[in-house]
Every structure is written in C-alpha cells, then in structure tokens.
Design goal:
Layout (H helix, E strand, L loop, with lengths): L15 H51 L12 H4 L8 E3 L2 E10 L5 E2 L6 E10 L3 E10 L4
Antiparallel strand pairs: 1-2, 2-3, 2-4, 4-5
Keywords: Membrane, Transmembrane, Transmembrane helix
Protein name: Pilus assembly protein
Organism: Rubrobacter tropicus
Amino acid sequence: MRSSTVERKDEAGSSLVEVTVAMVVLTLAMVPVVGVLEAGHRAATSSGEYDAARALAGSELEEARALPYHRPGGAADSAVERYAPPGPPGVTVDGFALSVRTAFVSGELSGTAGSPTGQMRMDVLVEWEGDRSYSTTGFVSGRPP
C-alpha cells in the first residue's frame, strides 16, 4: 500500500529569502538608472535655458539692427538714441536678466567715448540662475548724425 504523503523532489517555487534577495538586487540596480534619468532631465532643462538666453540676446541685437541708425531730431525710434552709450538700463525678461552695453567705434573698431561715427558696438549679456550667462556682440552701422 502506498503512503498518502508523497514527497516531491521537483517542487518549483521560491522561498521568501530568494524573493527578498531578488528585490534587493533589483532595487540596487535601479538607483543608477534613476540617477541617469535625473542627469538627463537636468541636461535637457539646462539646454533649454541656454537656447532661450541665446534667442533673447539675438532678438535684442536684431531689434537694434532693424532700427534706422539715426533720425534727425533725436527720434527715439533710432538705434543711436535708443541704445546711446553706455546703453539702456538692464531689464528682466521671463526670469532672465538682460543688459546691453554700447559704445561708438572708430574705423578700426576700437571703442571711443566720442560722438557717433556710423558704427556702434553692442554687447548683450543675458544672465540666469545667478551663475549662468550668455553674451554676444554685434555691430549696428549707418550714417553718422
């Protein structure tokens, strides 16, 4: 007669210890993945801010270049009057600090403190987050007044 209890040697399954060890291993493997994802997010955000700062600086230069260099009577819609050296006061645009420094330049493109010569150098600086910045330089030219 056979015994009603049969020992099975081929039982499949995992013990509580094996499951716990597997969970610990998976958790330790996920920590670097989370770090990589966080670094990727920071890089994407930083890149977006840099692009926005670059676009803002370029927009400021293009705005000055679109203006006539000089209009008789000191019209405020000319580059010489609107951006007269040392430049307009700094402003804040969408969380970016924008400042423009200008100087009239001589034929050799060296800065002078004198009257307009038909060329004006513009240094545009955009700052954000206290320690991040982007700067660009451009020239506006036309007939001197």
